[in-house]
Amino acid sequence: MYIEKIKLENFRNYKYENIELNKLINIIFGDNAQGKTNILEAIYFTSLGKSFRTNKEKEIVKENESQAKIEINFIKNNRKEKINAEISDKKNFYINDIPVKKLSELVGKINIVLFSPEDIEILRNEPIKRRKFLNIMISQLRPKYIFLLSEYNKVLEQRNNYLKKIKYENKSQEYLTIWDEQLEKIGIKIYEYRKEFIEKINNKIKKIHLNTTENKENIEIKYKTNIDKKNYMENLLKNKSVDIQKGYTSIGIHRDDFEIYINKKNVAIFGSQGQQRTSIISLKLAEAEVIYDEIEEYPIVLLDDFMSELDKKRINGFIQNIKNNQVLITTTDKINLDTVVYNLYKVEKAKVERIDKNGKI
Q1: For 209-247, what is each residue's pLDDT tens digit?
Q2: Which residues of 218-245 are buried (b: 16+ CB within 10 A; e: fewer)?
Q3: C-alpha to C-alpha distances, 348 to 39, 351, 354, nearest whole angstrom
Q4: Of the candidates 195, 205, 196, which has an alpha carbon nearest to the alpha carbon of residue 287?
Q5: Could you tell me the sign of the dihedral formed by the alpha carbons of 268, 208, 309, 332, in that order?
Q6: Do residues 322 and 285 make contact, with C-beta atoms less than 8 angstroms apart?
Q7: What predicted TM-score, i.e. pTM, was given to this entire model?
Q8: Looking at residue 313, what is its pLDDT?
């Protein structure tokens, strides 16, 4: 799988731009605030239906314009395909000029893995970051998962609203059963998907991390959940009085988490900064391998200013791990990769120019 061409119109700081890509390595360099990351954001947006930088989609539209457009031409399963996105007060997507009715029709058409400096927050930040990582990966491979998440969140909101009515309006507790049964039914399905994919990642990440650390570090991911598949309903009932008092549902897959261990120690607590960064690299590389196993196509790898903290040896070693993927790298400094063929692009004031390794256009 690879992208042949990206067309941008009134997207972020781009008025109009047409970018043709190498099917393997593409290095996009330039000063900050010139438009490098916007290119990756456009790919991400057409792949997952949302930005990785903002929840306010009006920010995506160029200032003083009413609509932004993205067109991605790509090859998948040896077939030419196209995705168009239109963003204004609402967003519309088209696959091969056919309107997309549901997000699940879009997600998974272009499979991506994003690396960014903020990925370290997957380890350090709240569990919502780790759930987001799982949700994005699984959604690309299991379209039904998106629907289940949506339904679960609707039921959860309804249950939470009713819990408040019990507390403040003295509503009957017996009606909670309506939402409990739905939470159990949907929650168990989501739990099974997450458990399956954490097992798949564990099968990949051990070898990747051993290779990265010269066989010195054993890595393992542990799935944390406060539900029990066999006793989901029983646990909901046990926590009912607590939930009424708090006004929200205290157990369920919306509280799920996972932890990464290196040599049996929680890397978020006991790991060095280097170990934390390496474990995130291993996690994302494992994600890419899981996607390949599922679809028999290499996902597109987006590296947003990711190389700035790696030395040349580590950069070349990292590239070898993704040598079969199409890769887009953004960087403030022009980098040279000795062992691979690549396209080099300079971005300045929202203009993208392909240049040679000596800086000539």
Answers
A1: 888 788 889 999 999 999 888 889 999 999 999 999 999
A2: ebebebebebeeeebeebbeebbeebbe
A3: 13, 5, 12
A4: 205
A5: negative
A6: yes
A7: 0.91
A8: 64
